Amino acid sequence: MRFSTILCLLFFLQISNAQDARFDICPLKVGMEIPEANLFNQTNEKVQLSKITAAKPTILIFYRGAWCGYCTKHLSELNDAKTEIENLGYQIIGITVDQADQLKESKSEIPVYSDSDLEASTGFGLDWKVDDQLFNKYLEKYELDLEAWSGQKHHSLPVPAVFIVQDNKVLFQYVNPDHSKRLKVSTLLSILKTL
């Protein structure tokens, strides 16, 4: 009885730790310089993040992928506020590990870029490795193949995040390892009005 209780406890801890890696990230802080990273647009052309953000203050939305309901809901809410965001003098872009040919699945007016090589996700300190157990759960239970979406075998995802950057510096960041919790659009708009 005692052995089976200990065994069950160890099994539970292993399962509960499967996603704990997402809590071990170290994202960029306010005032830090953003990294140079290459992204890919919908036609699979390489674009430097610094060239995108040089145009004007930029809101970067890191999300897991178009397969994530929480992500697409958040993008849709942001899309509804896109005009107001632009009227405040900002541009907004999405960054995902989905490969370039999957970007159209985001169905957003917000420009979305592929970071399937994890340059931006790693540079911003957001990437976490999906362990084999969780990868297989996604594949078997949800029929979600992370490799097919990203075109890579790294099994990594970014923790969802919002960064406001200007002149290659972080002005604001919201990072929450709980993928179901996102920065409210009303909160983002209030922050934009104060910067």
CATH architecture: 3-Layer(aba) Sandwich
Give a count of the beta strands, DSSP E runs of length 2 or more. Answer: 9
The fold-level CATH name is Glutaredoxin
The oligomeric state of the chains shown is single chain
The domain tally reads: 1
SSE order, as H and E? HEEHEHHEEHEHHEEEH
Estimate the helix proportion, in percent. 25-40%
Question: What is the rounded Rg?
Answer: 18 Å
Strand neighbour order, sheet with most strands:
5-4-3-8-9
| CATH top level class name | Alpha Beta
Strand content: 15-25%
Structural class: alpha/beta
Average pLDDT, all residues: 88
Q: How would the global form be characterised?
A: globular
Runs with pLDDT <50, length 5+? 3-18
Task: Please give the alpha-carbon distance between the first and last residues.
Answer: 60 Å
Describe the fold and architecture:
The protein has 195 residues and is an alpha/beta fold. It has a five-stranded mixed sheet with strand order 5-4-3-8-9. It has a two-stranded antiparallel sheet with strand order 1-2. Helix content is 35%, strand content 21%. 30% of the residues are buried.
